[in-house]
Design brief:
single chain; about 220 residues; alpha/beta; Rossmann fold; 6-stranded mixed sheet; PGM_Phosphatase; His_PPase_superfam; phosphatase activity
Length: about 220
Amino acid sequence: MVATTLHLLRHGEVHNPTGVLYGRLPGYHLSERGHAMAALVADHLAGGRGAERADVTVVIASPLQRAQETAGPIAAAFGVDVRTDENLLEAENQFQGLTFGVGDGSLRHPQHWPLLRNPFRPSWGEPYEKQVARMRAALDAAREAARGHQAVLVSHQLPIWVTRLAFENRRLWHDPRRRQCSLASLTSLHYEDDRFAGLTYSEPAAELLPGAARVAGA
């Protein structure tokens, strides 16, 4: 039996002072805290602060800048190059570039309301099934490349979450507020040979999540 682990890593915090839904737009890079998150994950995987050193032989990232920047410290910690896979891209979204919400957001404008007609698909963006299909393709390729070892795949919240739902045989439509996929979190898929054997979730950068210091001091 050959054990392989694929870590789906959500990128770190993004510099987004205007609060737009940036989607696949270019130029959105990690904030200072986002870079610190990436460094913490790299340290965790490399065995820092008492963690067991991961056997990472492959690091792959979405082509978007925030994912590439998150992958960099991990690749450096294990002496490998960052590979790029477009299958790890953020989900397509027709609200891209807009602020999303009722108040002063895009939902104030009636021309956007038809985009919300079917939340189960969803009608405003890339179908959940399509996201899962391309993420599975990325996982299959990574499993071959890292067979018997571990790989880190840096992607984005929604594709990671719906992929987890699919592996757990849960429905893909969901309440976005209930996603367990925080910034710089690891959703780790474990395989025995080519058989999916289970999933674990961890937050190596939890101490840097927005609100973490306030909660810890409460």
